[in-house]
Amino acid sequence: MSESRIRWAFKSAGLWLIALAFFAPVLWIFLAAFKSPAQILHTPPLWIFKPTLSGLNYMVHSHHFWLHLKNSVVVSVAGVLIALIVSYMAAFSFSRFRTRGTDFSMFVLLSMRMVPGAAVIVPVYMMYRAFGWSDTYFGMIFFYAMYSIPFAVWILKGFVDGVSRRFDEAAMVDGGSLGHVMFRVIPPQIIPGLFAAFIFNMIFVWNEYLFDFMLGGSQIATMPVAIAGGLYTVQGIDWQYIASLSFVFTLPLIVAVYFLQRYLLVGMTFGTVRGEV
Prior knowledge:
The protein is an all-alpha fold. 74% of the residues lie in helices and 1% in strands.
């Protein structure tokens, strides 16, 4: 075996060890979802055991599980879809009508997304209380739409920039309107970008805790709030409930990322290329 192959084998083994080290807590919580309370607390940890569905059954019939799951799905999907529509129109405008200050506007837009949540939670909370938006689906969907727009605009603008203006001109020559170009000509060519923007923002919104905890209230609480709220009981930490809920909470994202990972890779790299397609 050549020296380069040996070096590559060591690098691959090192990367696998690092990946396994980071995945070990996730694996433990996934296995704990199929253990009894006694098996979860067993020392040393049990890696070979008889699986049981008692934890999942306990989770489904307690702690308002279905309400939290419905809230997560509704506010995440609705908020991200609204953000995707608004972001696409903004990205099209930034790309096709490059007015003075476009680059600065894009910088400011992304900077707003980078502001720590703790720095703005108090004024946002006061605004929501004044408008009566707290503990409402409208309020949380509206917030998560605003939360998702900046990053989605940045992703989609890179894709729209990559679509040649010749498509716009050809559609106009054939009698198409600007709306026809915006909604019929460009979208089929940036489908990977739309998927990437949707997935990235779904990950952000699905995992968001602070704003839903402060603004959502008990009736609009999502899965992260449910995990934090059900952590402690009078008997201590409820590991069975936490493990089962974490498993159900994490699994959809893992499955989605696995099947749509090519769109994530394209979304992370396409904006760096400014060639036309």
